[in-house]
């Protein structure tokens, strides 16, 4: 059938080129137009593959060169050329080879007085110019001069043609040579005058798109240094700034304002950061010398950049897209076992797997007989929020306490949401809405508020950052406060924390502890909605930046380095990662001396990422010392008027690895503090320190029943900074020391979980916290997991980075999750030994069933997984290698599908199983390829929250993150129940456990004999990440395919209506 269609299309195209019969040509053009106007673009691409572009171009050239060109044929032909050309990446080259460019320019010049014909010529020129090389050729041949004859001062006539001309000019100016030509011929001043004329006279805003087209032309030209100089010399900043001030709040001016502000920001003089050097303030001498710490002082060359990557005279089709990063080399995709070290070295990891050799002689008696041990903390998964069924709209405080022991399966049965959508209004609360106007919280401590107030006024500064100058050096006053005002926070102990902190080694040699870390965090009993973004907040901030330049006397232009001065707006600079000049994103700082009910604005001006969830509802976190002492020790989301945008500070080429034209970004947010003279901490996300982890692990170990739970904490290795990297083993103790029980114990499969390779991803640690607490809990699912698996957990792969406040790197200034291919023991010890442990397990036939590395994601919402698939990668890359012959275990999709059904925060739609070249050295890819673990994952948790499911519209709190850690564990159990290797004993026990929960979870349980071998590729999701977050309002849509299609269709419709009116008029005249 496809061959018949192809041959039919080829006959039409061949006839079109050879026929001289007007009626036949029009019939073919009508047929092609109808064929391509319905369905998807696949029809157009199919036609292109059959030589459709060449056929149309040749017919167009031949028809145009006749002594009297027939516009009845040319106009539909030009419409088809525009429709097809936009989708053909090589259309410009084809048009150049067939001499269509000169023909079109000649036709356009002949039709300067014929608006309708000229409009069609402009559409063709717009498509030709989409190739920068072809656009440059058009510029040489006088296309810009032609367009300036069309683009006139304000008029009400031929506005559709004028708009098309401005859009063609904007596309032409993508060529750097055309932009230079425009500067040399004084077009900058001409464009400014034209825009000013249209703006002042178009009072009804009827022709906003013409004004936008003129601004797009200026935007193109000002990507050049000479263009910016001409723009500034023509007082363009002042002119456009004045227009912006009058239009910022006018929604009808949206298309104009977005481009206008980009021009203002683009032409704002570039400056270096107000720092002597952008390198980190701290340097750590590591083995092998510093890792790529650049010379960080800005040079003159850094400020002579000619703009972005689109300025070069190169074809758009040559610009790499995301698909170019997909790995298509089968040699690099196939399983490639092999050691990166001598085999003898693996023997050292036997000591980390003592569970395989321990005799457990003390198990001669039945577990539990005459057993006494101290439980310091309840081992139930307290962090899992109370479940709410569809009939249960809200829970009071008593209900929360009563349901804290609810099993995880019961929670899933009752419903995935902990805050049912219908109860959001009650559960979702604003920041400190319970604080009365006097600035003090009112609760059960009402009678003691005056005493606390007196104490706070005297000693709040002293207790806000306790010093570590003596063993357990908690002052007498603070010690008393802990006993009288401290809140019982599960798995946290300030005294243990202080002791652990004293043993922690840092580059800076920290002497004090932040109060929130010592006092602890208790999740609030409410959820927080994503912040509804105030319209235009980003534009207001950009406008304020420009005002500093054009009206310097109106605003204080000052960088404040001390938060003790009485200013209400502060520009802040975040220190780079140790031994680096980059990765300024994570922040955690203290503020004091504030006044209540007054907004304070903080501008962090040296962020690096091109976008952030701060633009889409995310808020930073705040911890108030006064609130903590009043019984509410809680990190909460706070801030308003939040936005994240590109500023005028330019990164030096030495910092960016030679790349030029990269800017820093500003995160700006305002905070209204709950109390006067408080001490508050602000952080990028909920902090989770290395000392918190070590404290947590010690308390966990003391809380378990050692006769039932095998919990072993040891050091995987020492970090470069001299801190131990903890390795945790969790499983169930064997029922006895009988041969059968010991055999079952030693043959339990392994699960390996890691986290916090990137120090700034503290959300990964909260997920890990939930996993650890659930695994040692009394939940029936946790017991089953312990009895059937051995968990090897490395909860913090980068302790040094966490300790020293890094965002991304180790002490060598390198990303540890890009070091898995060839780690070295003396340079990347934690990665080297984690990989060694995995190699050891594989060498003894005990490779993990699942490997998962917990991470945080700054630009997407929800929780999702990245896995590895050869077939999906090749399919997405349109690789010619046939995937039908490839054999691949598709079970890599099973765990994400399970989590999608179980976990409220998880979404399958964001998961991806592509193998990218840039990710070849990550844990996920290396464990998959070198150890053959098909279920090797990265699990990403958003810093922000959810845009789907029960948590839709809510920001993540620590409770939701910990819940995700518990749900991950439940997913592992169900994964095992679905597998063909699941033991009959586990199936029987799971069935007994589930009982009447089977109606909820039964669909997850497939007996091994019912396991389907049918491929699951029929429901594959879109593989590419759909990131729709842009740091700028997308103004650069001058080549938009849908928009040009719409214009063409609108023209055809108007023409048809005109013909109908003419026909009706002729009929009336005939009757008369």
Can you describe this structure?
It holds the Pfam family Peptidase_M14. Residues 1053-1072 are annotated as: Disordered. It comes from Octodon degus. This protein is α/β, with parallel strands linked by helices and 1072 residues long. 41% of the residues lie in helices and 9% in strands. Among the domains are: 7-97; 528-557 and 565-683, Immunoglobulin-like, CATH 2.60.40; 690-880 and 888-998, Zn peptidases (Aminopeptidase), CATH 3.40.630. The strands form 3 sheets. The protein has a 7-stranded mixed β-sheet, sandwiched between helices. A 4-stranded mixed β-sheet has the order 1-3-7-6, with helices on one face. A 4-stranded antiparallel β-sheet has the order 2-8-4-5. Helix 4 crosses helix 7 (100-110) and helix 11 packs parallel to helix 14 (208-221).
Specify Rg, calculated over alpha carbons: 33 Å
Question: Could you give the count of β-strands?
Answer: 15
Instruction: Report the CATH topology name of the domain at 690-880 and 888-998.
Output: Aminopeptidase
Structural class: alpha/beta
For the biggest β-sheet, the strand order reads 9-10-12-11-13-15-14
**Overall geometry:** globular
Task: Produce the secondary structure layout.
Blueprint: H1 2-18, H2 22-36, H3 42-49, H4 52-64, H5 71-85, H6 91-97, H7 100-110, H8 115-128, H9 132-140, H10 143-150, H11 159-172, H12 176-184, H13 187-201, H14 208-221, H15 225-233, H16 236-247, H17 254-267, H18 330-333, H19 397-402, H20 408-414, H21 424-427, H22 449-464, H23 476-484, H24 494-503, H25 515-519, H26 537-550, E1 569-572, E2 588-592, E3 599-607, E4 621-624, H27 625-629, E5 636-637, E6 640-650, E7 663-672, E8 679-683, H28 690-703, E9 709-718, E10 724-732, H29 739-746, E11 750-755, H30 762-775, H31 780-788, E12 790-794, H32 799-803, H33 829-843, E13 850-857, E14 863-866, H34 870-876, H35 894-902, H36 923-930, E15 936-942, H37 958-978, H38 984-994, H39 998-1001, H40 1041-1071
Helix pairs in contact: 1-2, 1-4, 2-5, 4-5, 4-7, 5-8, 7-8, 8-11, 9-12, 10-11, 11-14, 13-14, 14-17, 16-17, 16-26, 17-26, 24-28, 30-37, 31-37, 31-38, 35-37
């Amino acid at each position: 059938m496809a061959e018949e269609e192809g041959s039919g299309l080829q006959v039409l195209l061949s006839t079109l080129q050879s026929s001289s019969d007007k009626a036949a040509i029009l019939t073919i053009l009508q047929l092609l137009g109808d064929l391509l106007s319905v369905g998807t673009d696949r029809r157009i691409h199919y036609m292109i593959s059959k030589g459709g572009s060449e056929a149309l171009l040749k017919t167009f050239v031949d028809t145009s060169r006749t002594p009297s060109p027939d516009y009845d044929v040319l106009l539909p032909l030009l419409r088809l050329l525009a429709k097809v050309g936009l989708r053909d990446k090589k259309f410009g080259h084809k048009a150049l080879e067939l001499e269509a460019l000169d023909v079109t320019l000649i036709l356009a010049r002949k039709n300067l007085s014929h608006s309708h014909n000229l409009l069609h010529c402009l559409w063709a020129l717009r498509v030709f110019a989409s190739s920068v090389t072809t656009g440059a050729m058009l510029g040489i041949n006088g296309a810009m001069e032609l367009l300036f004859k069309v683009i006139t001062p304000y008029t009400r006539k031929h506005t559709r043609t004028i708009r098309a001309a401005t859009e063609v000019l904007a596309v032409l100016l993508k060529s750097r040579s055309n932009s230079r030509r425009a500067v040399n011929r004084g077009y900058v001043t001409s464009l400014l005058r034209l825009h000013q004329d249209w703006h002042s006279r178009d009072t009804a805003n009827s022709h906003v798109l013409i004004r936008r087209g003129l601004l797009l032309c200026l935007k193109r030209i000002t990507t050049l240094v000479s263009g910016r100089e001409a723009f500034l010399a023509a007082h363009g900043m002042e002119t456009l700034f004045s227009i912006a001030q009058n239009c910022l709040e006018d929604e009808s001016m949206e298309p104009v304002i977005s481009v206008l502000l980009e021009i203002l920001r683009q032409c704002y003089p570039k400056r270096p950061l107000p720092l002597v050097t952008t390198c980190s303030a701290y340097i750590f001498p590591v083995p092998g010398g510093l890792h790529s710490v650049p010379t960080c002082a800005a040079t003159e060359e850094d400020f002579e950049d000619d703009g972005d990557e689109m300025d070069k005279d190169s074809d758009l089709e040559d610009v790499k897209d995301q698909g170019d990063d997909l790995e298509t080399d089968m040699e690099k995709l196939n399983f490639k076992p092999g050691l990166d070290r001598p085999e003898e070295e693996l023997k050292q990891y036997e000591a980390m797997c003592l569970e395989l050799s321990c005799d457990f002689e003390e198990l001669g008696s039945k577990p539990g007989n005459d057993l006494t041990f101290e439980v310091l903390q309840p081992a139930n998964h307290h962090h899992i929020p109370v479940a709410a069924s569809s009939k249960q709209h809200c829970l009071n405080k008593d209900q929360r306490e009563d349901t804290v022991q609810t099993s995880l399966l019961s929670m899933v049965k009752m419903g995935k949401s902990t805050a049912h959508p219908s109860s959001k209004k009650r559960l979702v609360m604003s920041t400190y809405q319970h604080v009365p106007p006097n600035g003090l919280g009112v609760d059960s401590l009402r009678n003691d508020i005056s005493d606390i107030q007196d104490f706070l006024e005297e000693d709040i500064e002293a207790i806000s950052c306790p010093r570590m100058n003596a063993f357990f050096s908690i002052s007498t006053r603070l010690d008393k406060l802990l006993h009288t005002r401290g809140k019982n926070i599960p798995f946290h102990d300030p005294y243990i924390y202080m002791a652990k902190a004293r043993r922690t080694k840092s580059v800076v040699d920290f002497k004090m502890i932040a109060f929130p870390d010592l006092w602890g965090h208790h999740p609030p009993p409410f959820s927080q909605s994503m912040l509804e973004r105030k319209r235009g907040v980003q534009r207001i901030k950009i406008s304020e930046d420009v005002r500093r330049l054009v009206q310097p006397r109106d605003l204080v232009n000052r960088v404040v380095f001390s938060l003790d001065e009485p200013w209400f707006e502060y520009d802040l600079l975040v220190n780079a990662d140790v031994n680096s000049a980059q990765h300024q994103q994570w922040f955690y700082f203290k503020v004091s001396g504030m006044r209540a009910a007054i907004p304070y604005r903080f501008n962090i001006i040296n962020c690096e990422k091109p976008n952030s969830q701060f633009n889409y509802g995310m808020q930073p976190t705040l911890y108030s010392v006064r609130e903590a002492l009043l019984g509410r020790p809680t990190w909460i989301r706070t801030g308003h008027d939040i936005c994240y945008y590109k500023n005028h500070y330019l990164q030096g080429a030495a910092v960016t690895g030679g790349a030029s034209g990269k800017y820093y970004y500003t995160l700006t947010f305002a905070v209204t503090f709950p109390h006067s003279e408080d001490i508050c901490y602000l952080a990028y996300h909920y902090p989770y320190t290395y000392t918190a982890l070590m404290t947590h692990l010690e308390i966990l170990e003391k809380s378990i029943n050692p006769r039932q739970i095998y919990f072993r904490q040891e050091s995987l290795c020492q970090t470069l900074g001299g801190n131990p990297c903890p390795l945790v083993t969790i499983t169930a103790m064997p029922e006895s020391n009988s041969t059968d029980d010991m055999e079952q114990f030693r043959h339990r499969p392994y699960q390996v979980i890691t986290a916090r390779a990137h120090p700034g991803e503290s959300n990964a640690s909260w997920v890990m916290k939930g996993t650890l607490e659930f695994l040692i809990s009394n939940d029936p699912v946790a017991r089953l997991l312990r009895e059937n698996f051995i968990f090897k957990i490395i909860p913090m792969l980068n302790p040094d980075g966490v300790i020293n406040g890094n965002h991304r790197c180790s002490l060598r200034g390198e990303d540890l999750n890009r070091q898995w291919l060839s780690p070295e023991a003396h340079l990347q010890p934690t990665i080297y030994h984690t990989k060694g442990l995995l190699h050891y397990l594989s060498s003894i036939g005990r490779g993990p069933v699942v490997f998962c590395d917990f991470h945080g994601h700054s630009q997407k919402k929800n929780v999702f997984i990245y896995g590895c698939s050869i077939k999906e990668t090749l399919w997405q890359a349109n690789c010619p290698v046939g995937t039908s012959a490839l054999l691949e275990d598709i079970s890599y999709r099973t765990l994400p599908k399970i989590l999608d059904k179980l976990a409220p925060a998880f979404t399958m739609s964001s998961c991806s199983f592509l193998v990218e070249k840039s990710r070849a050295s990550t844990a996920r890819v290396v464990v998959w390829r070198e150890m053959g673990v098909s279920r090797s994952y990265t699990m990403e948790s958003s810093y922000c929250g959810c845009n789907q499911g029960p948590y839709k519209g809510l920001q993540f709190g620590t409770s939701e993150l910990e819940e995700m850690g518990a749900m991950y564990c439940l997913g592992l159990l169900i994964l095992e129940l679905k597998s063909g290797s699941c033991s009959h004993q586990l199936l029987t026990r799971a069935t007994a456990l589930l009982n009447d929960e089977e109606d909820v979870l039964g669909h997850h349980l497939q007996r091994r004999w019912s396991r389907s071998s049918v491929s699951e590729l029929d429901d594959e999701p879109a593989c590419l990440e759909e990131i729709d977050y842009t740091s700028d309002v997308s103004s650069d849509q001058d080549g938009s395919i849908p928009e040009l299609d719409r214009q063409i269709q609108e023209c055809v419709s108007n023409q048809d209506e005109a013909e109908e009116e003419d026909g009706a008029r002729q009929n009336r005249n005939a009757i008369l």
